[in-house]
Amino acid sequence: LATCALFLSAAANTLSASDGFEESFQPLVEKYCYRCHGGERTRGGVDLTTYETSDSVFEDRELWLEALWLIENEEMPSKGELPSLSERKEMIDWLESRLNEVDWSQIREAGHVSLPRLTKNEYNNTIRDLLGLDIQSGNILLEEGEGDSGFTTDRDNLFITPATMEKYFTAADVALEAVIALQKPTISIHLESEEMFMTESDQPEEYPDEFFGYNLNRGQMTLYDSIEFPADGYYTLRMRVLPTVTSESALRVRLNNDVVGDLSIDSTEPTFVSLTFLAPKGYQQLALNYERSLLPHAIAKQYSRQNKTGSIAVDWLDIQGPLNPAGVSEHNIDFFPDVKSKRGTRKAAARTLRRFARRAFRRPIENSEVNRYLAIYKSARSNGETYASSLKLALTGVMVSPHFLFRHEFGPDNTLAADFALNDFQIASRLSYFLWMSMPDEELFSLAKKGKLSHPDVLRAQVQRMVKDPKATSFTNAFLSQWLDYDAIGVSVIPDKKVFPEFTPALAIAMKDETRLSFDHIIRHNQSLLSLIDTDTTYLNEQLATHYGIDGVEGTEMRAVSLTDKQRGGLIGMGSVLTATSTSTRTNPVVRGIWVLEKILGDHIGDPPDDAGQLDENAGTKEGLTLREELESHRTNPECGICHDKIDPIGFGLENFDGIGRFRTTDNGLPIDNRGEVDGFTFSGAIPLKGWLLSERRDAFIENVNKQMLSFALGRKLETFDQGPLLDIKAKLENNEYKVLTLLEEVVLSYPFLHQGNTNNVQASL
Amino acid sequence: MKSAKTISRRRMLRGLGVSMALPKLEIMSALTATAALGATQTASASSSKPGQSSAAPMRFISIFQPNGIYPKAWDVTGEGKNYEISPTLKPLEPLRNDVNILSGLDNYNILAGVNGNHVSLTSAFLTGHGVKNRRAAISLDQKIAKHIGGNTAFQSIVLGTEPPRQGMTGGNPISMAGTVSWNSPTTRINPEINPRVVFDRLFRNNSSPEAKHQASLQKSVVDIVLEDAKGLRRQASTLDKHKLDEYLDSIRAVELQIERTINPVEPDWIPPHGPTDADFVAPAPGIPRDRALHLRLMTDIMILALWTDTTRVATLMNAHGFSRQNCSFIDGVTDNHHGMSHHKELPKSVANYTLTSTWYVAQFAYLLNRLKSIDEEGSSLLDNSIVLFGSGMKDGNGHIGNNLPILLAGNGQGQIKTGRHIRVDSQPLANLHFTIAQKFGIEDPDFNGVGTRTLSELG
C-alpha cells in the first residue's frame, strides 16, 4: 500500500508537509466554505471539514475540480462575506497546482475490481452460451441495483445470501432439466377452440371450410385454457384462424398474463399462424385476445361496435415442444449416450464433465478438478441413479461452484499486494463479459490458449468482431439504459393513465429499443460518438413514429428511419429519455436539465437542501403562474439560483417535448416558451441546444462517455488514478474523429482493463 | 387457474388433516436446497429446546414505510391511554388496545453516517447506521433472526414490492435504499418482490421420501463446492475474502437445510390451529400490476409464514426507501409518493400525502387484524409478536429525521404494555432496537454502538 501512495504523491510533485495546505488553503476554506459545507451544514451533501490533508484533497480530485471551477467562476461562495481578489487567487492557485500539475503518465495503478460475481443478466447469458439453450432460468434471481459506478456490473454491489444460493441450485436444475427434455420425445397438444374457456357467453360459430370456433371481436374477449408443460422450454403454438370482418386482423398471445407474442394476419380464408415461446414447467394459462392496438391504423380507426373490424376466429390450436429455437447446440450435452458398459458410461461422463467444466470455469482445468466433480456422478450412480440424473447432478455442482458463479482474477502466488497483468483467460473473460455480458466463445478460448490474446492487434480485432455479434445487444442495452437511467420506464416509472392514455407497455418497449438500436447503428457503422447528440437516423416502428408525428412507418417492427425533423435525432429527442425525465403527469424541466448536465456532460449536481421542496404535480396547470414562472420565482432565491440557473434553462429548451416525448408547440392552450440561456448562450428549443452541446461542451461530453464506458467495462467506480488512462483514451478519440470503436478498443487496451490490483482503491489514490 | 402444485397441496392437506403437522410439512425441499431467505446460519438454537416447550414462540415483524408522513396528520394529542387518535392513524382506532404510538425517537446520527438523505435514513431504520464506503451494520431483524431463527425452516424472510431504483443520491446509489435488512455490515439482503416465487420457496413439501432422496444426492454437490470455496478463499487477497465468506455462509445454510431434510429436526412447537385450504392458495405467477393487490399478497404470505412457524422473523418494505410509486390507485390521489412528500405545505400535496399515508396505515391495520385473529391456544399470534411499523424519516418535506413516526404493536408475550401513546425524551431510534433485542433475549451491551439505553417506558 505504502509504495503506491508514495508513488502518487511523488508524481503529483508535491510534498504534503510543505505545499501550503495548512498554511494558506485550509484556513481560507474554513473561512469561506465551512459556513455551508462544514460539519453541521452540508449543502449539496458536501462536507469540507473531512479534508484534513493535502492528500485527502487530491484523493477526491473530482469534487475539488468542481470546487475549483466554481471558485474561478465566482459562483461560490454564493452568499455572505466574499473572499478578496488575492484570497480567491490563492485558493485557485493552490488547487490548480495540487490537482492539475500531475504527470499522469507516471501513474500506473490498476485499482482493485472486487471478485466479480455474475450479474443476473450475465448469469442468464452464460447459461445460454454454456448449454446452447436460452432458457432464462436465472429469472428467479432478484434484480440487482446499481452500484457506486452507476451500473449493475459494479462488482462491489453484488452479494450472495442463502436465498441467492438456493436460487442458483434451482436455476441450474431447471436449465439442465430443459436440456434433458430436449432429448426426450416432444409433446403435442391439440385443443379445439370450442372446448376452451371463453370469458364471454358467446357461442362458437361456424364458417365455411369446416371452420368451427370462437370469434374474437373485442378487447375483453379472452379464449383461454390451462396447459401442462412437461419441462421449462420453448414450445411452438400453431393455430388455424380466420379473419371474419376485414382481411387484416391480429391476435395477442399471453401466458399467465404475460404477452408472449403478437400475430398479424392478413387473409380472407382460413389460414395458419404460429409462434414460439418460452414456457415454465407445469400448468400454465394460455390466453388469446383480440388486440386492436396491433391492427393497422386504418382498420383500428374504423372499428365500431357494429362492424367489429379486425375480428378473428380461432378453429383449433396445437402446441408442440420442447424444442430449441437455436437448433442443436455444438455444445450439446448428451444425456442419453449410446454406451452400455459401466466403464463406457463413466468415460462418457468424464468426457462431458471435462468439456463442460472447462467452459463453465472459463479456463483450463486440471484432471484432479474433473475427478472431484466426477465423484458426484459416481456416488449418484452407486445410489442407483440413472446416467442422465447422475450426470445432471455433477453438472449442477459445476453450475453452483464458486469457480462458475465468480469470475476470479487471482494473480500468480507472489502478487497478493501488487498490480499484476491478467492472464489470457482472464482477459478473455473480461472482454466477453464487457461486450457480450457472457462467457467467452471458442475463438476467444483458443486465442487465450495460444497466448495471443494480450496482443494489442488481436484485442482490437476481437473487439471489432465481438460488437458485430448479436450477443453484443446485452451490452448496449445494459450500458445505455443504466448510464442514461431510462430502464425503469414502463416498469416502475409509469406515466399517469388519465393524463397519458397513449402510453402503453408496447410504446415503452419501442422507446427503449429506439435508443439501443440507434447506438447499435453507431457501432455497426463505426460512427462518431457525437452522433449520440445529433444524427439524422433513428429507429422507429409505427406506434413510435405516430407518437413522434412521423408518417410512412408501418407495422410493429423497428427499422432505421431517416429523419427530416431536426428536433429528433440524438438522445435528447428520444421518447425514452424524455419520459424518464418527466413526472407521471407533466414535464419536469428541472429533472431534464439535471439529466443533460449529469448524464451527457458528467457534471455532479448535488442534492437540493432537504427542505427545498418539489413543485406540485399540478404546477403550471393552475391559474396564475406557469410552470416556468413558478421555477423562475424559485430561482430568485440565491441559494436555489446557484444550481438552478444552469439547470432550468436547459430543461426549458426541451419544453417542446411533453411528458411522454411528443412534440408540442402549446401547453394547456398557451404557447410553449422554449427559450433558455446557459453560460451566456441564448437559444430556443432543442435544435440550437444540440448545436451548443456539440460546439461548446464537446470535451465534457466525450470525457463523460469515456468515464462511463471504462467504469462499466471494469465493474468498478473510477478513481483519481484512472485519470491517466482516461486522458490517453481521449487523445486517441480526438485523432480518430471520436469513432465509437476507438473508444471500445482503447478501453480494452487500457492499463486497468488488462491488469488487476490488490490495493484498496481508497488508499491507493492517496 | 390453480397450478398443479396448489391442487396437489390441497389434496395433501385434506388427506392429512389440516391442524396436524403443518410445520413439519412445510420444511422446504432439499432438492432446491432452500435456506433462510436472509440470514447466515448460526449455531444458536431457539430459546426453547425441542420438545421442551409447548408455548408459542416470539415473533418479530418489521414494516418499513418510505418517504415519511405528514406530521400534522400523524401526531396524536394526549399521552398514555387517553390520547386522541389522528387522521392518519384512524384505521387503527379499532385496534388501539393492541398498539403503542411512540414519539420522540430520532434517526439522525452524523457519527454513524445518518444524515438527511434517503439512503442513510432507510439503512438506519433497522441498523442505526448510514452507508459509508458501502458499509452499514447488521439490522435488528437479522440480529434477532440469528438468535431465535435457528429451529425454523427460514431464519427470516425479507419481502418488498419494488425493485432497486436507478440513479445516485448524496454520493450513494439509490439502489441501496432498496432494503432495510443487512446480513452483515457489507451484505445487503434485497427483498423478494415476486409473490409466487416467495410462496413456492416457503411452502414446498419437504418430507416426502423423494425429497429426502434428492437431499442425500444434493449433499455430495454441497461437499464439493464448499471445498472449492475454501480453496479459493485461501488464494484470494484480503479484499476479496469477504465475498467468498458470503458464498461460504450461504452454502453452509444450504447444507444445513439438506441435513434437516435427511434428518428432520423435531419442531419445538406446533401451531395448534394451522391455516385452512382457503388460506393456502398460491398466488398467480408474475408480479401483479395492481399495487394494492401486490402489497396484500406479500402481507398474506408473510402471515402464512409466521402462522405455520416457517419463520419467526419477517420484514416487509411497503415500498422502496425512495419510492416514486404513482399512488393514483388510491381514491383522490394524483401524485407519486416521493413527489407528494416534498409538499411545501401546499394543500393539494398535503392532501395527497395524508391520503397515501392513511392508506398504508390501513394496510398495517389489516395485518394486525389478521395476526390477532390467529389463535395460538389462549393467545393470538399478535400477542406473541412484537410488530414494528415506521419510517426512517418524519416529514418527507425536509427529510426530517427527528420524532419519527413509530408504531409498536403486539405485547411480546406480556413484555410490553400496549394501548398507549408513549412520548419519550428525544433519543436515538437505536435505543428502541436495543430494547426490542433485549425482549428477544439478546444480551449485547449496546445495539451496533448507537443504541445504549433501554426504553423502560415500554414495559
Q: How are the SSEs ordered, and which strands pair?
A:
The complex is a heterodimer of chains A (766) and B (459).
Chain A: H1 2-11, H2 21-32, H3 34-37, E1 41-42, H4 54-59, H5 61-72, H6 85-100, H7 120-131, H8 162-182, E2 187-192, E3 197-198, E4 205-207, E5 211-213, E6 215-216, E7 222-229, E8 233-243, E9 248-255, E10 258-266, E11 271-279, E12 282-290, H9 297-302, E13 312-323, H10 342-361, H11 367-382, H12 387-400, H13 402-405, E14 420-421, H14 424-435, H15 442-449, H16 456-468, H17 473-483, H18 505-524, E15 537-540, H19 542-548, E16 559-562, H20 575-580, H21 589-600, H22 627-635, H23 638-653, E17 666-667, E18 670-671, E19 675-678, E20 681-684, H24 686-696, H25 698-714, H26 723-734, H27 740-749, H28 751-754, E21 755-756, H29 761-764
Antiparallel strand pairs in A: 2-13, 3-7, 4-5, 6-13, 7-12, 8-11, 8-13, 9-10, 9-12, 14-21, 15-16, 17-18, 19-20
Helix pairs in contact in A: 2-6, 5-6, 8-12, 10-11, 10-12, 11-12, 14-15, 16-27, 17-18, 21-23, 22-23, 25-26, 25-27, 26-27
Chain B: H1 4-16, H2 22-25, E1 59-64, H3 71-74, E2 99-106, H4 118-127, H5 140-148, E3 157-159, E4 168-169, E5 172-173, H6 195-202, H7 209-235, H8 238-262, H9 291-307, E6 313-317, H10 337-341, H11 347-373, E7 385-390, E8 406-409, E9 421-428, H12 430-439
Parallel strand pairs in B: 1-6, 1-7, 2-9, 3-6
Antiparallel strand pairs in B: 2-8, 4-5, 7-8
Helix pairs in contact in B: 6-9, 7-8, 9-11
